[in-house]
Amino acid sequence: xxxxxxxxxxxxxxxxWQHQGHAPTVQQAVEQALSVVADQPVKAxxxxxxxxxxxxxxxxxxxxxTAQRDPRAWLLGTNANLPRDVALTWVQPVADEFHARFSxxxxxxxxxxxxxxxxxxxxxxxxxxxxxxxxxxxxxxxARALLGTHDFSxxxxxxxxxxxxxxxxxxxxxxxxxxxxxLDIEADGFLHHMVRNIVGVLLAIGRGEQEISxxxxxxxxxxxxxxxxxxxxxxxxFVYAAYPEHFAIPRLSSPI
Length: 256
Prior knowledge:
With 256 residues, this protein is of the alpha+beta class. The chain is built from 5 helices and 10 strands; from the N terminus they run E-H-E-E-H-E-E-E-H-E-E-E-H-H-E.
């Protein structure tokens, strides 16, 4: 039986989703908890491999098992064995051809910035903090240049191993909500550090250090050295992965 799960986590204490061997990961925590409920080893495959310190609101994964449990037992039993900063949000059986990574048609991320003079004592690990004044309208205008299908080599990490730097960005918005600036981006796929590097460029534009046209100029260079500083990981959230309708994968409303 193949089972799909939704996962929510605070990534601060983890070296990303994927097994590292030298440090705790979300995948390790989820697999250990599932294995307790299944009473057999379980391997989980996720829609996206989030980096160290990155959070998730709607990560999707799947696993195969011969254990017979109803969805409620999987959900409650797994959550009882997970640390408090990781939780399953839903569980459902899926067709054998479903694959959390390869069946995904789009992925969506959100980057949250606290933009005020004082840092937060409560939200410090859940969003980035920029004390300089940011012009969200300038950032939004610059972001429009990144919509569509482009070679995003300038916006990926130098260590990125993807052989295909061309991605299609369907949506990229920047909005101010009082002291928060929220960036939402949806694409058919993402390169290593792509979102955080986009945010780094837009922050420089928002502070007035660069012209609005700089986002387009960086894109056209196809060279990481043309870009800005990589934004910190703790402002980034994996929001959801979108799948063909016939899989009926749940998409919960975002609490952030």
